[in-house]
Amino acid sequence: MKLYLISFILLFNFLEKCSSTPRISDHITINIHLKPQNVMRLRYYDDFLVEKVLSFRNASEKDSVLTEKIYSDHILEVKYSVMDAAANKEYFNVLYLKKGDSINIALEEFRLKNLTDNQFLFVSDFLDVNSSIFRHADITKGLKDQMNSNRITLRANLTKIDSLLAHKKITDSVAGLWKEVSNNFYYLKQSRLNYTSNPKDLDTLVSDLKSALAKKTNINSTFLSQAIVVVANYNKTHTNLNDNLNTFVKEVININTEKRYKAGVAFQALKTFPEKKSSLYLETYNLFKNKLNDSAFMAKSYANEIIPIQKSFDQAAIKLTTPGKASLTLADIFRNNKGKVIVFDLWASWCVPCIAEFPYLEKTKARLATKNISFIGIGLDKDIKEKDWKDILAKSKVSTKNQFRVIERSNKLISQLYRIETIPRYLVFNTNGMLVNDHFLKPSDKNFEQRLLMYIQPKKD
Q1: SS3 of 447, please?
Q2: Domain named Thioredoxin: which ranges (predicted)?
C-alpha cells in the first residue's frame, strides 16, 4: 500500500509539473497597433514559397490593435517595405518568425516600432539585408564592382554577427539564423545583376545557387524563390530548349531542392501565364499535377487559381486603331498574321524605357525581314494621348506598319488578358497563335534574336 501511495505522489507531481510548463502555440501571432484610418501591409512566403500579403486597416476613429495568425512549421521571413514619395524616403524592416512567436508592432507614420521585449526583432536594424523593390543596383558601377560591393556587405554582416555573439548579445541559434540570412541576401543581390557580358560569372553564380538550394533549410525566403527561377532559366538556356512555360517548369522540377519550394515557383509561373485555355498551359498544368502537386498544396485556397480555363476569350472584344485611324480588333491581328510567329511590343508614349528599346527592335526587324515573323507594336496610350503616340512614332523613326493603339475602353481588357502590370512587355506567339512566352527578353538583350529564332526554327525538347 505504501508503494502505491509513493507512486501516486510521484505521478501527481509529474503531471503538475507538466501542466505548469507553458505550451508552444501552433501558430505565429502578429499584433499591429494602428492609429485611426491607418493601413499597413506585411509580406511573407508560405511553406510553398507562394508570396502572401497581410493587410491591416484600422477603419475606426480610435487607436486599435489588429491581429493576424499564421500557421507554418517553418521560419517565415516577414517584410515591411514602403516608400514615402513626398520625402523620397524608403522604410524597410525584415523579421524572422517561427511557430509560437507572438509580436507587437506599432506603425508611426511610415516607421515600424518594436513593442516587444526582443530588441533584435528587426534584423534589418542590425544587418544590411534590404532586399526591397525600391533598392536597385548601382548601374553606374560595372558588374565586377557591384559583385565586390555585395561581398563587402556580406563580410560586414558576418563580422557584426560574430561581434554580437562574442559579447553575448545574441545566442548561438540566433547567430546561425542571421548568418544564413546574410548569405541568402548576398546571393539574392548577386542573382539580380546583369551577367549578359560576363557569362562565366553567371556560371559560377548558378553553381553556388545549386549548392545552396541542395542544402536543408528551415527558412521560407525571397532568396529561395529567386534562386530557383535563376537556375531554371539558366538550365533552359544552356540546354537550348524551346523557351516557353512548359520548359521552364520542367527545369524547375529537375532542380535538386525541396519539392514544396519547386511547387511554389511552378505555381507562380502557371498563375501569371495569361492564356489558361491554351494547349501549352494544359500540358504544363498536367506536368505540374503529376510531378509537383500533393494534398497539402491542394488544400491551399489559392490552388484553384491555376485550374485551366475552358472558355475562350473573345479577342474581337479588344478594339484597336492605326495611325491612319483605321479600326480593327485583336482577332484581326491574329487573322492577318496567321501561320507566322508573332511578337507583341506593348508600350506607351510616356514610357521612357519602352522608347529606348525602339532602335534595337528596328534593327532586329530589318535583320529578320525575310523570316516567318511579324512584329506588332501595341500602344497603351489613352485616347486623349493619341497625338503623343503618333508623335513618338514619327520622332523615333519607327515604321508605322503593324503599329496599333488600343482604344481606351479596351485598355483594361487587354491588360487583364495578358496580365500587364509593367511595360515594356514583349509577348511571343507561335504559328498557331498560341502564347508561348509572356515575358520575353528586351530587344536590347544580346540574346534577343537568337532566342526568337528558336521559335521560328524550333528545336525539339
Answers
A1: coil
A2: 307-461
- Nearest Cα neighbor of 360 from 443, 428, 439, 423 is 443
Give CA separation, 130 vs 125, 153, 190, in Å.
10, 11, 13
Q: Where are the beta strands (DSSP E) in 251-388?
A: 319-321, 327-329, 341-347, 373-379
Residue 398 grid coordinates: 519607327
pLDDT in tens, 129-174: 987 655 555 556 788 999 999 999 999 999 999 999 999 999 999 9
How high does pLDDT run on average in the chain? 86
Query: Which three cell numbers mark 76?
Result: 517565415
Across 234-246, average pLDDT: 77
Sketch the domain layout of the chain as residue ranges. Answer: 28-120, 126-193, 195-312, 315-456
Asked if residues 222 and 49 have their Cβ atoms less than 8 Å apart, the reply is no
- Rounded mean pLDDT, 316-342: 91
**What cell does 219 get?**
527558412
Topology given in CATH for the domain delimited by 315-456: Glutaredoxin (3.40.30)
Closest listed residue to residue 398, CA positions, set 425, 419, 376: 376
Contact by Cβ (8 Å): 337, 374 = yes
The H or E element spanning position 284 is: helix 279-291
Give every CB contact of residue 12 below 8 A, 6+ residues apart in sequence: none
CA distances in angstroms from 355 to 53, 66, 139, 377, listed in the order given: 34, 45, 19, 12
By three-state DSSP, how is residue 165 classified?
A: helix
pTM: 0.73
pLDDT band at 25 (very low <50, low <70, confident <90, very high): confident
Amino acid at 353: P
Is the per-residue pLDDT at 446 higher than 90?
no
Nine-digit cell string for 284: 504544363
* DSSP secondary structure letters along 11-77: HHHHHHHHHHSPPPPSSEEEEEEE-TT-EEEEEEE-TTS-EEEEEEE--SSS-EEEEEEE--SSEEE
